[in-house]
Write a structure and sequence with these properties.
The protein is of the alpha+beta class. It has 29 helices and 18 strands. Strands 1, 2, 4, 6, 7, 9 and 12 form a seven-stranded antiparallel β-sheet that branches.
């Protein structure tokens, strides 16, 4: 019994029994008395006090403990025990929890335009559908043809092989001893290069002789240094490429016996040295040799890529959304349509399979325009659409090029192309589009479209088509991009470190770390079990010689990246050096960054951003303290602990790893304290001693599983999961567990769910014809 109620009891002696029987204040009454002045009557926030809405994903026990420790802000510790329990239950049920927010404002499937990524992929695949497919070749590297002359004469080809990379220093020697003379020769490397992500790529060729580089073109070189002036030995060219695509690549190198002037003494003249290397700088990476895993000896047809810049999509909810149209976006879409129309007209003979001056060229071009429009709109054309988009443009001019240009502009500016199928559309063509945009961020391919046309997209066929589509490189790119997004590793983190403190941590090592992480993700995702838990528990990681030397690991025999087991505690992605380095400062580790990552990404907690930016305490100001001690000192204020009470104990479990992810037992000459804790949704506090106990807990946590399911749903579908039913997240999480945590199967389940959305929660929209 509280003192307050005891005094009421005493004061009521002899009074009416109604006072004696009075109930304790309700949670709502407590909230209105102690909380509403800062948080608002319905948790909406109060300007100049706490403007953010009072909502999140803590459970009632978690909320009660937070309130008891930190609230009210002016008198913390005055709302405890049963009062804290009651007010937590009220807040949670009235407006704070996801369920309450769904009740107050139900989630809906929003009508959305194509995102920037979807627009680029859709236009690329629309043009590509009139061309052949890229050649499949399981080998890696480039095909190298070696000639015993300078001019690639057919009868002088002496060697045909696969080179894993182009990085040769021939000096004054022959590239193929016994077959080719050292004084002059030529080499042609051919194949394809795969762009791992979308963005601008710098290609760099180092060479001291004649060289040309062709990328995504057989006609126009990206780099042309065949005839050089001066002493330059490095040449650059840039291209905007879409991630997950294969682009043709041809590198031609010719060496002459430079310096030989006197023909009579040619045999006595010194042989000129020669070298050649091929590198690139990806959009979010350092300059580096093009890895063997991105090179393929197979042929790729030309890929059209829209280069018009678009404003970024909204990511305020954690995933890319195309729910708003700005003037800048509309102008970019117009520029993209003009760029595409110009390209189509310049390639009309190859795209429409026509020849100049042939009698039936007008018919073939018009047929091409009709097919182009049908594929862009993702459904068979109606009579009205044929009239608007095909017949009228061709009737308005006798100039075929102008007619085609009009069609392309009309189509690519039409809502039928720019907007996704709205949720009220349950046709097989809408189902096909949801599958293709969900897994490829692009249009349905011919097989999927034909299945829709034949009415063969029932539940079983949806599953079969999704499993087929999973083998496409575009699906592999999107799922890898999801994992990188899940790990917060897709934004190109700056990994520069103090060179004096971490000698050898340079751009080449950073590139190796990134490659190692991507290999680890791919191998786990595409393994037979595709077990999500292995992301958190795998005891090995891919390493090459440079990584092994820096981190002090002994590699097994082999070449390139291979799995290595370290002596210290390593556990899946949680201790991968790339992530640990990204979640650290230039000289010191950062328990706060690492704790935020574990809380938000892995556990799925909705942490609020700090009210103001606070610089970390410099080690120079507190030279006697460890990183853990400095962080504890800086965040011990009551206002900080509502979030840092969760963040810090999680981040501390990774303190055995320094700013570059190397294992350590000492920090500032003191033993590292890697003890941590987490207040679970049940209200129980779970304690960890280091990363192994943390990893075991996370891998088995239903909170972690549900967070992973929800994040994958949002990444693939780009709609809120609860718009598909209040229990949909629980259903998908249950299926995820039943599948043995198979990530690929989860993707299939998500796409099957989104392909046929429920009608009651949809927002209908009628698109105009043009």
């Amino acid at each position: 019994m509280t003192i307050r109620w005891f005094l009421l009891l005493v004061a009521g002696m002899g009074a009416s029994t109604s006072v004696l029987a009075a109930d304790p204040p309700t949670g709502e009454a407590i909230y209105l008395a102690k909380c509403a002045s800062c948080h608002g009557k319905s948790g909406e926030g109060v300007a100049d006090k706490y403007s953010q809405a009072l909502e999140g994903d803590r459970s009632i026990p978690q909320l009660a403990k937070l309130i008891a420790r930190t609230m009210p802000e002016d008198k913390p510790g005055t709302c405890i025990g049963e009062e804290a329990d009651r007010v937590a239950a009220y807040i949670h049920g009235a407006f704070y929890s996801i369920t309450a927010r769904e009740r107050n404002k139900p989630a809906r499937i929003a009508l959305a335009r194509l995102t920037v990524k979807q627009y680029g992929n859709a236009v690329t695949d629309l043009i590509g559908s009139f061309r052949g497919q890229a050649g499949r070749d399981e080998r890696q590297g480039l095909r190298g043809e070696y000639y015993d002359d300078r001019n690639f004469s057919g009868d002088k080809r002496k060697e045909d092989r696969i080179d894993p990379q182009v990085d040769f220093r021939f000096e004054a020697k022959s590239p193929v001893e016994g077959k080719i003379e050292a004084k002059q020769f030529a080499i042609r490397w051919q194949g394809s290069v795969v762009a791992p992500e979308t963005g601008l790529y710098d290609f760099i060729v180092g060479c001291d002789h004649a060289v040309k580089l062709y990328v995504n073109s057989q006609e126009k070189p990206l780099i042309d240094a065949w005839v050089k002036s001066g002493s330059d030995t490095e040449f650059k060219g840039s291209l905007f490429l879409l991630g997950g695509r294969s682009y043709s690549l041809r590198l031609e190198f010719s060496k002459a016996n430079q310096g030989v002037v006197d023909k009579k003494r040619e045999k006595e003249a010194p042989i000129a040295k020669a070298f050649i290397s091929l590198q690139w700088k990806p959009p979010h990476g350092p300059r580096q040799p093009i890895s063997t895993r991105y090179l393929n000896p197979g042929h790729s047809p030309e890929v059209f890529v829209v280069s018009a810049p678009f404003p970024p999509d909204d990511r305020s909810l954690g995933w890319e959304r195309g729910t708003a149209i700005s003037r800048e976006w509309d102008q970019a879409a117009t520029a993209g349509a003009l760029e595409t129309a110009t390209y189509v007209v310049s390639r009309i003979n190859s795209l429409a399979a026509t020849r100049d001056k042939e009698a039936d060229k007008p018919k073939k071009v018009k047929d091409f325009a009709r097919t182009f429009t049908e594929r862009a709109f993702r459904h068979p054309l109606t009579a009205e659409e044929i009239s608007i988009y095909i017949d009228k443009p061709f009737a308005s001019t006798t100039d075929l090029d102008l007619a085609v240009k009009k069609v392309v502009l009309l189509v690519l500016k039409s809502p039928r192309f720019l907007y996704r199928e709205d949720a009220s559309d349950q046709s097989p063509f809408a189902v096909a589009s949801r599958l293709s945009f969900g897994l490829w961020d692009s249009l349905p391919d011919r097989e999927l479209f034909q299945e829709a046309k034949a009415g063969r997209l029932g539940p079983a066929q949806i599953v079969r088509q999704t499993e087929r589509m999973m083998n496409d490189p575009r699906a592999k790119t999107k799922l890898r991009d999801f994992l990188l997004t899940y790990l917060k590793a897709n934004a190109g983190a700056e990994l520069a470190k103090d060179p004096k403190r971490f000698t050898g941590f340079d751009e080449l090592l950073v590139a190796d770390l990134r490659t190692s992480l991507e290999i680890m993700l791919d191998e786990t995702l595409w393994s037979p079990s595709s077990d999500f838990r292995q992301l958190l528990l795998a005891p090995q990681m891919p390493m090459n010689e440079r990584m092994a030397a820096f981190y002090g690991v002994k590699l097994p025999e082999g070449k390139g990246f291979r799995k290595a087991t370290t002596d210290e505690e390593r556990l899946g992605v949680l201790t991968h050096p790339y992530l640990l380095s990204a979640l650290a400062y230039t000289r010191e580790s950062s328990p706060i960054h690492r704790g935020v990552f574990l809380a938000r990404s892995v556990l799925g907690l909705g942490l609020k951003p700090p009210p103001e930016a606070v610089a970390p305490v410099s080690p120079e100001l507190q030279p006697q303290l460890t990183t853990r001690e400095r962080v504890t000192l800086q965040t011990n204020a009551n206002a900080c602990m509502s979030c840092h009470g969760v963040i810090n104990p999680l981040g501390f479990t990774l303190e055995n790893y320094d700013a570059v992810g190397r294992f350590r037992k000492l920090d500032n000459n003191k033993p590292v304290d890697s003890q941590g804790a987490y207040l679970a949704r049940t209200g129980a506090t779970v304690k960890f001693q280091g990363v192994k106990e943390l990893g075991a807990y996370l891998a088995a946590s239903e909170e972690v599983h549900a967070a992973f399911v929800e994040k994958m749903f949002h990444h693939l579908v780009q709609q809120p999961v609860r718009a598909y039913g209040p229990n949909k997240l629980d259903e998908l999480s249950s299926r995820f567990r039943a599948s043995g945590f198979n990530m690929r199967q989860l993707a299939v389940d998500i796409l099957v769910t989104s392909a046929q959305p429920p009608k009651p929660t949809t927002v209908s929209a009628v698109l105009p014809a043009r």
